[in-house]
Amino acid sequence: MELFRGTNIDWLGKKWYFLGFSLIFSVAGVLSMLFWHGIPLGVDFKGGTQVRVEFSQTPNEDHVRQAMDRAGVRDFRIQRISDPSGHAANKVIIALPESSAADASHDAGRQSVEHALTANYHDSAFSIEQVEIVGPTAGAQLQKQAALATVYSLIGMLIYLWFRFELIYGLAAVVAVFHDTLITVGAFSLTNQEITLTVIAAILTLIGYSMNDTIVVFDRIRENLALSRKEALADVVNRSINQTLSRTVISSGLTFLTVLSLYLFGGEVLHGFSFALVVGILIGTYSSIAVAAPMLVAYQEWRARRGKVATLPSGKRAKA
Amino acid sequence: MGKNLAGKTAFIVAILVVFCFGIVGIPHGSLKQSIMDRIHLGLDLKGGAHLVLEVHVAEAVASSTDRDVARLESDLQKAGVVGATVGKTDAARPQTIVVSGIPAAKLSDARGVLQGIDYSSYDVATSTDGSSALTMKQAAIRDLESRTLDTSIETIRERIDKLGVSEPVIQKYGLGDNQILVELPGVENLDRVEEVIQSTAKLSIHAVTGGPFATDQDAMQANNGVIPPDSMLLHGTGSAGAPDQIWLLKRVSEVEGTDFRDAQPSQDQNGRPNIRFNLTTEAGDRFYKYTEAHTATSTTPGSMAIVLDNKVREVAGIQSAIRDSGEITGGFTQQQAQDLSLMLRTGALPATISYLETRTVGPSLGLASIHQGVTAAIAGMLAVMIFMLVYYRGAGINADLALVLNLVILLGFMGFTGSTLTLPGIAGVILTIGMGVDSNVLIFERIREELRAGKTAAAAVQQGFAHAWVTIIDTHVTTIVSAAILFLFGTGPVRGFALTLVFGLLANLFTAVFVSRVIFDSHLQKKERGAALSI
Fold it and tell me: Cα–Cα distance between A52 and A19 in angstroms, integer?
């Protein structure tokens, strides 16, 4: 069985459609981040208290709210849990802001929620399944860790690309990765899902994945450039993409299958993580063809217009 | 062809056996039990509490200098220097002691004391008006702070031990200064645990110099608007059920935590829970001198305040001289009396601690997570395996075998290194399945291309592996580097993810390239010349 025998699609010709598509999603995401949901941060980064309560029957949210109000708990938020497998229908997260988790009275928020429910909620039995309390000091530390991990990751990628390819290849790959991250974070903003530490881990992983994907295409471009020096660059790039299309789609498809399995069956705790991967893998595959490759050609045409040499450097190694 | 296929195959089987051993050890009891023994589950799968504490080590410096103030006073008196005042003048700099008012005639005696061995951790600076300032050396401060942290860790460890938690983790936490990580598997009830760890019985007995006052202002007014530098104001209740009031206490304690030799929960004559304590001999002597001088029948009757964690717990007049055994009643419940005695016996924490981060996972959530993670893994793996069989036919069997071996090696790695499996770790396993099969796809697609170009089966296989090799290395290295960074900067669950990803990809390098090649080669050797390769 073979799905992609001898495809000959003019990918670069469609670059304006791709640009439009990317722009729509990027702008939608950015607008949401700026004006709508903002960037929803999980308790890891913004601090506060989160208590996950499981009820023996589907809870009436209003009754829960009343139970809290009657006990004098203020500034709380009640969240339902989204979980495609449906296991989380009886669960609710009660979240308190950072002020509830100050280093001095760290546990006060959690205790107030527990007492409020014990005293005032009588619809059904409940149990506290999970508690997360992050004080301001810890929140600041975790933010720093996430930022450092991201920065070092990107630097590591750049160094590796610089070592293996010419600078322009590296830049094109980084632009593609930036595009992927922007759209993924935008997706979180649009669907109002929280970004926690594990979500950051997922985003860093998909950065690596997107880079992989781009490298596969670039490897083939470089190989083909070494073989034929007379062909127009656009033609070489198109041919390279067509040649690797089979591998790209199948490989991404298989990874996507496993990640989809995680999203559907993996449960509510991993929900944000698997959502990031689902979106990221789709976009990461798309960006290698739709963003990185056109950027390469665009740069080359810019150089040609300025009268410089007309062939793309084929990288530090002539033979892959 | 002399490729030594038999040897390579034997090697692969040996690897399989070795890593199976890594997963189950020497099987005893049920298979599940053997696996559980080897592979440790993280808190998010087992259930338990994860706590990050901060030790306020600066307090240790303050109390150390307080003790030295008292010692200096008595040493100067012994040396015959009368009329000097010793104290800490600046609350913001607790590491500095100022000695002033030394009579000119006794300057050299005073200097002899100051330069004695007892104060070698201080830098002595003399100013023109004859007063001296002793500032604790930086090295001594750092040393004290580090010892305070270590002692805190040990004390907490002892207490948690006595609580009966199995396999707790108590260690320094790298993300910040003076932070401790405590992980308690299986602990659900936070309230009692937090009390036992945190209210770490910084217990001391102070002389009462004034009070009780209703508010801070009253206290200031009674002392002409200024609190004497050797005293401090503390809130608390003088006895069980009394309202919150403020007392003026001497800063330096008469008895402190380290002076307790034993403490047992007991009952007073009314049947209320209290604590009977015994002091060390040396502390007992000091306490006797103090209480004898201030009994109700003496010329300077006084009261003592029992201070627990910077709050006044009980204020009592001194009825008679106490040497080394006494009672503390403070409105305790029986549980509190037991816990407090335990804390006094194991030693008071040298400084107070506060919580920075708390995470707990209930056991039902943990079990559900395991269940869901394994379901997702099996579903994902089946989907991939079926696809490979359908799309690549015979070669698909090759890929599926490599996939299974991959999983065995990955889990075996974890068993051998004693790594912890977390929920994101299970996600990492699932991701490895998807990314790992990518190597096979790369190779197979290349082989198909070469076959289309007219090469023989053997040449196509050889070319396929040769060309794909470089890209496989590229993709694996980038992901492994990214996972390594996640491991360095991540915390518990994220580390588990990075770990399974790295192990899985390393295993994949072996199975996708070496094992797949051996299977192809042995197949090529067996099939007839000219027959098509099933791919």
Answer: 42
Range of the domain at A66: 48-134
Residue at which a domain ends, from A105, A134, A163: A134
Q: Is residue A314 part of a domain?
A: no
Torsions phi, psi for A229 (to 5 deg): -90, -5
Residues in chain A: 320
- The count of residues in chain B is 535
Return the CATH class of domain B199-359. Answer: alpha beta
Among residues B182, B175, B490, B52, the alpha carbon closest in space to that of A140 is found at: B175
- CATH number for the domain that contains residue A225: 1.20.1640.10
Instruction: Give me the number of domains chain A comprises.
Output: 2
CB pairs under 8 A between A and B: 229
> Does A318 fall in a domain?
no
Chain A residues with CB under 8 Å of B424 CB are: 198, 201, 270, 273
Residues B355, A106: C-beta atoms closer than 8 Å: yes
Beta strands B420-421; B40-41: pairing state = parallel
- Do A34 and A91 have their domain in common? no
Per-residue pLDDT in tens (0 to 9) along chain B, 535 residues: 456 888 888 888 898 888 888 888 777 777 777 777 778 888 888 889 999 999 888 888 887 888 788 788 878 888 787 777 888 877 778 888 888 887 777 777 778 888 877 788 888 888 777 788 888 888 888 888 888 888 888 888 888 887 778 788 899 987 778 899 999 988 877 777 777 777 655 678 888 888 788 888 887 887 787 777 778 888 887 776 678 888 888 877 888 777 777 778 888 778 888 888 888 888 888 888 888 888 777 777 778 888 877 788 778 777 777 877 887 766 678 877 777 777 777 666 778 788 899 999 988 888 888 999 999 999 999 999 999 999 988 889 989 999 999 999 999 988 888 888 999 999 999 888 888 888 898 898 888 888 888 888 888 898 889 888 888 887 888 888 888 888 888 877 888 899 899 999 999 999 988 888 888 888 888 876 666 777 8
Query: Would you say the CATH fold of B199-359 matches that of B58-140?
Result: yes
**Location of structure tokens 């038999």:** B6
Of A204, A246, A269, the CB nearest to B486: A204
With an 8 Å Cβ cutoff, are A129 and B365 in contact? yes
Tell me which chain A residues have a C-beta less than 8 angstroms from the C-beta of B362: 127-130
Read off the tokens for B359. 């995470």
Selecting from A129, A211, A267 the residue whose C-beta is nearest the C-beta of B364 gives A129
Nearest 5 degrees, angle CA B334-CA B335-CA B337? 65
* Distance in angstroms (rounded) separating the CA atoms of residues A289 and A241: 7
Question: Which residues of chain A does B357 touch, with a Cβ-Cβ cutoff of 8 Å?
Answer: 133-135, 138
Residue with tokens 């040996």: B14
Contacts of A212 in chain B (CB under 8 A): 474-475, 478-479
Domains in chain B: boundaries: 5-43+364-526, 58-140, 199-359
* Residues of chain B numbered 466-485 and touching chain A (CB < 8 Å): 467, 470-471, 474-475, 477-479, 481-483, 485
Domain B58-140: CATH architecture, name and number where available: 2-Layer Sandwich (3.30)
A103: nearest CB among B356, B434, B445: B356
- Return d(Cα A211, Cα A255) in angstroms, integer: 15
Of A134, A167, A194, the position where a domain reaches its end is: A134
User: Residues A110, A68: one domain?
Assistant: yes
Yes or no, beta carbons of B430 and A262 under 8 Å apart: yes
Q: Is residue A35 part of a domain?
A: yes
Claim: this prediction has a pTM higher than 0.95: no
Alpha carbon of B470: minimum distance to chain A alpha carbons (Å): 7
Considering the domain boundaries, does residue A5 fall inside one? no
What CATH number is given for B5-43+364-526 in this structure?
Answer: 1.20.1640.10
Chain A residues closer than 8 Å to B501 by CB: 205
Asked whether the beta carbons of residue A129 and residue B376 sit closer than 8 angstroms, the reply is no
